[in-house]
Every structure is written in C-alpha cells, then in structure tokens.
Amino acid sequence: MLAYVHDLDPVIWDIWRGVKLRWYGLAYLLAFLVAYYLLCYLSRKKLWVIVEKNIGDFIALLAMIGVFIGGRLGYVLFYMIPEHGWGPIAQDPLSIIRVWDGGMASHGGFLGVALFTLYYARKHKISWTGIGDGICIVAPLGLMFGRLANFINGELYGRVAAQLPWGVKFPQAFQEESYLVRETVITEIADRAPLIYEKMNQGMELSEAVRLSPEVKQICAEHLTARHPSQLYEGFCEGAFLFGLMWFLHFRYPRAPHGMICGIFFILYGVLRTIVEHYREPDSSRIGPFTKGQFYSLFMVLAGAAFLFHAWKNRKQVG
C-alpha cells in the first residue's frame, strides 16, 4: 500500500493580492485565545496569581514581546546566523523581522517569555514562578497547534521510514532524495504532466504541483520515500500529553510550591523534544553529537531542575 503523499495547502484563504490567511497564523491565534480562556478559568478558581481583569493585557503583551520577538530572535541567533553568518542580514536587515518567510524557534520563544514574565512580575510585585506555573499549563496547547500547522505546511518533516505503515511522503523533502530519484521524478513529470513541468521550470514548487495535479501526486507516490510524521509526534508528546499532565498536577496539588509546574514542564519538554528529535530530519547543522533542538533542550532540563530546586527550597504556597 502506497504511503500518503502530503498534499495539504498551508493557505486557508487567499484574501487579496498576496494577503493570505495561513494555518500557521491561525494556530498562533487559537493558542492565545485558548490560553486566555483557560488562564481566566484558573484565576477565577484562585489557582493563578494574575487576577482575571488583567489577563487580556498580559496575554497581548506576552504574545508580542515574549513569543513573537523571542521566537524570531531565537531563530536568528540560534539557527540563521550560525548557519549563514551575518552576510544575509547585513545585505537585508529587514530579514530579521520577516516572520512570514518562516523561522520561529520554540527555545527562543521560551526565553522571550521567561524574560518578559520576569519583568512583569517585578513591575507588579507578583511571584515570577507563580506566573510561570500558569503559563506552563497552557503553553503545551500552543505547541500542539504549532506542530499541527507544521504538518499542514509539510515542513520540519521526519527522517526516512520507508516501511512505516503511517509514513508520509513529503514533496517538500524532494531535495533530500537521491539524485537518481530526483531525476526520475522530474523526467516523469515532463512526460506525464508537461503543463505542470513548464510551471515548475518557472518556479512552481513540487508541493504546489502535487496539489494541482493528480498525475504529479501519483508520480511522487511511486518514487518519493516515506518519512516519519515527526510534527505529529511532537504535537502529541510536547503538546497534548504535557497539557494533560500539567493540568492534572495543578488540580491534584493546588497548593504546590510556586515553580513546581515550571520545573516539571521544562524537564519533560527537554526530554521529550530530545527523544522525538531522533525521528526528525535535522533542519540545520549539528552541535557535536546533538541536533540543535536536542542541544538547546539540555538547557531546558537544567532550567527545570533549577525551578524544582527553587520550589523545594522556598515551599511558597499558592494563595
């Protein structure tokens, strides 16, 4: 049985002259809306340190300063500059803010959120780790939505898994195939779908050709190699599973010391990300034996241990 050939469209609606509503943008919107309602619920139950009337402003600032700026700068500093140097940025400084071209780093987002919440906590004289506990409960849902959007986009795909029953053939991974496979695919498209072949010569991506032509999709099904849908692995492990666990722990131990939820979340995220990275095609160079995702996750585990130590040492109760 042939594996599924990825043919999902990352665009929901082409609004007007290149202005498009994308699944990736919708994922961010859903993440912040769900976070707002869940945090309001926790605040009403006296299970979070920020009062309900201030949560809307807090989420808006967190999204802009912590997630977007932190995530983008994290991508630039952790991935773009180490891979390509300062040359591309010197030639085009606006590339730093061109988020719509792709490039957000979850580890950068975590760092941005941590710095923003530290500032917010000091300004409003609220427990920083208390704020963090609430965010760590809802953050996994945002991660889940983001990974689902990654899958729809066909990006950040997994390693080769030719015999995997649920493997997916990603046209975006075309350049990862052998030279012989690439030549075979192009030759067959030229023979069996000449109009699409002409458009590809004019810049059309194979992923778009698959969506437009059943013939091209069949050619990809015959020749591309199935891969792990690692985006879905990450969406479940770092998203759905962690959310369920954090939610359960917070209600099971409502008077746990501030920082306990943060510590558990950071450690488990780092461990799960490290495990799932074994199934993901590295999208950048390695740091020693680790992918960059694994390497940066080591610091997440260390930060989690520090949060747990802080919680144990202070034993500051909620409320």
What does this structure look like?
With 319 residues, the protein is mainly α. The chain folds into two domains: 4-160 and 228-314, no CATH class; 178-223, no CATH class. Helices cover 64% and strands 4% of the residues. The protein has helices spanning 23-44, 55-84, 87-91, 106-124, 128-153, 179-192, 194-201, 206-212, 214-223, 230-252, 260-276, 292-314, and strands spanning 4-5, 11-16, 19-22, 168-169. A two-stranded parallel sheet has the order 1-4. A hairpin with a 2-residue loop joins β2 (11-16) and β3 (19-22). α1 runs antiparallel to α5 and α11 runs antiparallel to α12. The protein is elongated. The mean pLDDT is 90.
Query: What's the rounded overall pLDDT mean?
Result: 90
Trace the largest sheet across and list its strands.
1-4
Number of strands: 4
- Please identify the structural class as seen in this structure: mainly alpha
Quaternary structure annotation: single chain
State the distance separating the first and last CA atoms: 57 Å
Largest sheet: 2 strands, parallel
- The amount of beta strand, in percent, is under 5%
Number of helices: 12
Task: State the shape.
Answer: elongated
Low-confidence stretches: none
Provide the number of structural domains: 2
> What Rg, in angstroms, do the CA atoms define?
22 Å
Helix fraction bin:
55-70%
- Spell out the helices and strands N to C: EEEHHHHHEHHHHHHH
Describe the secondary-structure layout.
Blueprint: E1 4-5, E2 11-16, E3 19-22, H1 23-44, H2 55-84, H3 87-91, H4 106-124, H5 128-153, E4 168-169, H6 179-192, H7 194-201, H8 206-212, H9 214-223, H10 230-252, H11 260-276, H12 292-314
Parallel strand pairs: 1-4
Antiparallel strand pairs: 2-3
Helix pairs in contact: 1-2, 1-5, 2-4, 4-5, 5-10, 5-11, 6-7, 6-9, 8-9, 10-11, 11-12
